[in-house]
Amino acid sequence: MATTVPKTMKALVKTKEGSSFEYKNVPVPEPKDDEVLLKVDAISVCGSDISLYMWNEVARVIATVPFIPGHECAGTVVKCGPKADIAVGTKVGVENHYFCGNCYQCKNDCREICKNMGQFGHGKKTEHGACSEYTIVSAKYLYQLTRNLNADQIAMLEPLGVAHNAVERLDVKGEDALIIGCGPVGLLAGMVAKAEGAKRLIGADIDPNRLELAKKVGFDVTVNTKERDLKEFVMEFTEGDGFGRVCECSGAPVMVNASFSLLRKGGTMVMVGLPKQPLHVENVLQDIGKLYAITI
């Protein structure tokens, strides 16, 4: 299938540290070796993209300038390097974690925390990202989709993968589950938990709009933590036991620290939203359980 590719394209570019992106014309890159040129069909905006724009403390850890932002995307293959084994016209999703395949983490099915990881859209071992009309990705980091998903759905596969990774560790089947933080990943985690057989799904947040959306996507109970003390609610709801399954998606230090005391003794908590301040466990002996931190 012949595709005409222009010489230049529009792109957002992070050219320097500080609060800025530049919207400019840049050359369309040429795929080499096993690289593939994609026409970007859709992107979704992650909270980290806002950090990259602001160039805050988080951005200084996760990114290296210069780069084109955008790591959650859908694309169509329009041109291939000589070693890329994929057909022009293929609809794909992008694996934004550029894993090495050789370190301990990669060899033990933890490629998303590869010791030598690069990252698409963050300037880590690649300057390319999805906030552009075209982008370059190695063929090994592309997902060829077997289901008939549209571009918007494909672009959401990355945050959905984060949510699934978290819920998979919770083992929610037949259990009540508490989701703290009903942003995009929290809502997706709730939807995955329902699909995995959670008994009752409870969502906690301070934003009434997010809580309303949580109800629409299948949460059974919601609680506004600006209006109700969460620990008081949890102990009343669970008759003093706490939840056996807690998924912390807010990353807010006050909520993360409070989460331990909401956990049933011997229960399981997954932290998806990672705080930027030290954690404090109020009562180690009482709050003891299983804890997983999902890095994204």
From TrEMBL:
<protein>
    <submittedName>
        <fullName>L-threonine 3-dehydrogenase</fullName>
    </submittedName>
</protein>
<dbReference type="InterPro" id="IPR013154">
    <property type="entry name" value="ADH-like_N"/>
</dbReference>
<dbReference type="InterPro" id="IPR050129">
    <property type="entry name" value="Zn_alcohol_dh"/>
</dbReference>
<keyword id="KW-0560">Oxidoreductase</keyword>
<dbReference type="InterPro" id="IPR011032">
    <property type="entry name" value="GroES-like_sf"/>
</dbReference>
<feature type="domain" description="Alcohol dehydrogenase-like N-terminal">
    <location>
        <begin position="33"/>
        <end position="145"/>
    </location>
</feature>
<keyword id="KW-0479">Metal-binding</keyword>
<dbReference type="InterPro" id="IPR036291">
    <property type="entry name" value="NAD(P)-bd_dom_sf"/>
</dbReference>
<keyword id="KW-0862">Zinc</keyword>
<dbReference type="GO" id="GO:0008270">
    <property type="term" value="F:zinc ion binding"/>
</dbReference>
<dbReference type="InterPro" id="IPR002328">
    <property type="entry name" value="ADH_Zn_CS"/>
</dbReference>
<dbReference type="GO" id="GO:0016491">
    <property type="term" value="F:oxidoreductase activity"/>
</dbReference>
<feature type="domain" description="Alcohol dehydrogenase-like C-terminal">
    <location>
        <begin position="184"/>
        <end position="281"/>
    </location>
</feature>
<dbReference type="InterPro" id="IPR013149">
    <property type="entry name" value="ADH-like_C"/>
</dbReference>
<comment type="similarity">
    <text>Belongs to the zinc-containing alcohol dehydrogenase family.</text>
</comment>
<dbReference type="Pfam" id="PF08240">
    <property type="entry name" value="ADH_N"/>
</dbReference>
<dbReference type="Pfam" id="PF00107">
    <property type="entry name" value="ADH_zinc_N"/>
</dbReference>
